[in-house]
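Forgive a beginner's question, but might I ask you for the amino acids of a protein and the tokens describing how it folds?
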Amino acid sequence: MNFEDMSEKEILSIANPIMDNLMDASTEIDHEKHIKNYTERMKKITTKEYLQKVCEKYQAEKGFFSERKFVAVFKRPTSVAIIWKQSFTKAKGEFVAEMVLVYKNGKYLCDHAMVF
């Protein structure tokens, strides 16, 4: 799989549902749902306890995820980074949502995700 050969539209058609799931699962603080599209590396990092702690902290400080707008795709042969402008329900201002997508064992998986 060479991500450089894919269009932004193709990449977003894969990445958006994965990011939607990550955001919904973190809002619900649902660990099993949250790690559904994670690589094994990410699953080891994102324990149930870690997810609980991170989600409770951002929800108390910033509220919940609201509008997300696509900004850019950065293509590499074996991965792609997608950047969105992210808003929250309580915190003012603009935040960055990012995800690194890889293709492993016949599946598109998230190998990194962060909102900052």
User: Anything to note?
Assistant: Residues 3-115 form a domain with the Nuclear Transport Factor 2; Chain: A, fold (CATH 3.10.450.50). The mean pLDDT is 97. The beta strands are 65-75, 79-88, 95-104, 107-115. The chain has one domain: 3-115.
